Amino acid sequence: MKNDLIAAIATAPGQAGIAVVRISGDNALDVLQKIFSHSGDYETHKLYYGTIKNEGNIIDYAMVAFMKAPHTYTGDDTIEVFCHGGYAVSRSVLSTVLEKGCRMAKAGEFTKRAFLNGRLDLSQAEAVSELIAANAQRAADVALNALSGRIKKQIDNMREKLLDFLAKIEVCIDYPEDDVEQQTAKMLLPEIQIMINDLETLLQTAHRGRIYKEGLTVAIAGRPNVGKSSLLNAIMGESRAIVTTTPGTTRDTLEAHVDINGLEVMLIDTAGIRKSDETIEKMGIERAENVIARADIVLLVIDNNTGITQEDIKVFQKLADKPYIVVINKMDIGSPIQQKSLDVQLGAGETIYVSALNHTNIVALENMIFDFVGENKLSNTQAVLSNVRHIEAVKNANMSLDEALTTLNNAMPIDLAVTDIKNAWHSLGEVTGDTVDEDIVERIFSKFCVGK
Ligand code: GDP
Predict the structure, then answer these.
(1) What's the pLDDT score for residue 287?
(2) Which of 50, 81, 240, 406 could form a cystine bridge with 21, CB 3.0-4.6 A?
(3) Which atom of ligand 1 is nearest the CA belonging to 223?
(4) 390 lines ligand 1 (CB under 6 A)
(5) 356 lines ligand 1 (CB under 6 A)
(6) Ligand 1 pocket test: which of 315, 357, 360, 361 has the largest number of ligand atoms within 8 Å of its C-beta?
(7) Ligand 1 midpoint to CA 414 (Å)
(8) Can you give the pLDDT at residue 249?
(9) Over pLDDT 90: what percentage of the chain?
(10) Ligand 1 atom closest to Cα of 360?
């Protein structure tokens, strides 16, 4: 039943200008002919205007497109009905096509077909759902990078080379003279080293890729009354809010998602960190510490008017090894804190003076937060990893090749390297989906939305 007829509403529920009902599978055109007023032939990839009918009753005036396999999203014959948006109309178009022989598509089933029909590899298919999930431009950029097939291309090239290595070793095994083996090992060593370097370069993109995809978590920490909440509000006022403030996952935190230069940033306003014997206070402190642990970067807020206090130093000590920016708030009152005392008491972190009250230097602070992620444009040619599954697979491939390198370096029998090279080939195939189990594929697509 690989190509049976499936249908779903591909647009989000709710009122809108149009809704799209998508149908895919063998003989999809039969379904269209049963419900649509156009009586002649259908040219592929052309729009037709007419009425959608069910047993003579008009359901809607709509545009439809018939797309003939294999040049379609799924690789099967596909129809898209562009009807009026809104719950009632799109539901009746859907129920009409279900009556005419389609079944309801499962979550992600259109994209799964695209994958099974070889229209997309698994890294591209996953990128489709990541592109839909993207809240900010940077997340869309990394998804588009994968969707363009850059990861697939690089991985396919490497797997091709690995097969070539295996073929060379095979020759040695067939002709087991010592010198052939030694020569082959000598020839393979630099090639494997180059591939390890390439994998490492690819892995280096993962840090930025993950932050682009998932957003940057920024904890706002400091003792009470330094202006943490005011700072959160000021940043929200200077940037586009993705989600307005919500109570944090923990009792004493407040979270806000903002878009800073196209990067999604989750700001967490922590409860004041201070020593206390009261249980509730203590719980608050522990939670604030947890938030700091979760954050990619911490804004350590200091009150310019009071200067650095013992309590500030205690908060600073909670930061451990976290990257941080010292934000000296209330620059509108008091005289600036001496740079020397900042360096001595709060380490050599970056420093900025702001006034949350007057919105002074808030944009500059945002740029500092953004710069933390590194260069802001993705290269047009480099594949960027952002998906945990891909990152793990590439790491495993790298480890296997390291082992192969050790074998060859230590003049061990060359066939011992075969397993490692095969493992690397297998791990890389997990990224593109060539070597993944059916249940993993199922799991990946089950997280998609219906209609995609
Ligand atoms: P939190 O306890 O750290 O969250 O601090 P709040 O944001 O509640 O601020 C504590 C007090 O400092 C409030 O009265 C704010 O109005 C005041 N405040 C915050 N930021 C500034 C600032 O930049 N300048 C001045 N003068 N007052 C500020």
Answers:
(1) 65
(2) 81
(3) 3
(4) no
(5) yes
(6) 357
(7) 68
(8) 46
(9) 68
(10) 23
User: 354 C-alpha vs ligand 1 centroid, how far in Å?
Assistant: 12
Amino acid at 174: D
Would the CB of 334 count as within 6 Å of ligand 1?
Answer: no
Instruction: Give CA–CA dist 42/66, Å, rounded.
Output: 7
Q: Return d(Cα 79, Cα 62) in angstroms, integer.
A: 13
Q: 270 CB under 6 A from ligand 1?
A: no
Is residue 332 within 6 Å of ligand 1 at its C-beta? yes
* Tens digits of residue pLDDT in 73-121: 999 999 999 999 989 999 999 999 999 999 999 999 999 999 999 999 9
Look at ligand 1, atom 25, and give the residue with the nearest C-alpha. Answer: 330
Q: Is the CB of 90 under 6 A from ligand 1?
A: no
**322: CA distance to ligand 1 center in Å?**
25
Task: Assess whether the C-beta atom of 112 lies below 6 angstroms from ligand 1.
Answer: no
- pLDDT score at 375: 64
Q: Record the tokens describing residue 252, joined without a space.
A: 């004493």
Residue segments in the chain with a per-residue pLDDT below the cut of 70? 1, 176-178, 241-252, 271-288, 374-378
pLDDT at position 288 is 67
Q: Which atom of ligand 1 is nearest to the CA of 333?
A: 26
Q: What is the DSSP string of 17-36?
A: SEEEEEEESTTHHHHHHHHB
Q: What is the pLDDT of residue 373?
A: 81
Whose CA is closest to atom 14 on ligand 1? 225
Place of tokens 């192969």: 404
Q: Running DSSP on this structure, what letter comes out for residue 374?
A: -
Mutation to probe ligand 1, out of 230, 245, 330 (largest number of atoms < 8 A from CB): 230
- Per-residue burial over 116-142, b if 16 or more Cβ lie within 10 Å, else e, is bbebbbbbbbbbbbbbeebebebbbbb
Could you tell me the two tokens for 76? 């099967």
Cα atoms in the 13 Å half-sphere on the side-chain side of 421: 28
The helix, strand and coil proportions of the chain, stated in percent and rounded to the nearest 5, come to: 50, 20, 35
In sequence order, what are the residues at sequence separation of 6 or more whose Cβ sits closer than 8 angstroms to the Cβ of residue 259? Answer: 135, 136, 137, 239, 240, 241, 242, 265
Q: Tell me the pLDDT tens digit for each residue of 317-343.
A: 888 889 999 999 999 998 888 888 888
Q: Could you tell me the sign of the dihedral formed by the alpha carbons of 334, 339, 340, 342, in that order?
A: positive
The contacts of residue 143 (CB under 8 Å, 6+ apart) are 127, 128, 130, 131, 133, 134, 213, 386
